[in-house]
Amino acid sequence: MLQPELIVYNGNLITLDRRRPRASAMAIGGERILDVGNDEQILRLATGDTQRLDLNGQTVTPGFIDSHIHLYAYGEHLLRNADLVGCRDIDEILSRLSELARRSEGWIQGHGFDQDKLAERRFPTRQDLDRVSRHRPIIISRICGHAVVVNSAALAVVTPAERLAGDEDGGLYTENAVAAFYRRIPPLSESQAEQAVLAAARVALKTGITSVQTLLDTPEQMAAYARLRRKGKLPIRVIGMPPYAAVEQLHRHGINSGFGDDWLRFGACKLFSDGSLGARTALLAEPYHDQPDTRGLRIYPPDELKRMARDAQLKGFGLAIHAIGDQAVRETIDAIEFALAGDSNEQHRHRIEHASVCPPDCIQRMAAMKIVVTCQPQFVTSDTWTSQRLGPARSPWAYPFATMRASGVPIALSSDCPVEKLDAFACLHSAIARHEWSPGETLLPEQAIAAYCLGSAYAAHVEDRVGSLEPGKLADFVVLSGDPTRLPAEQIPSLRAVRVFVAGRAVPQPP
Question: What is the pTM of this model?
Answer without folding.
Answer: 0.92
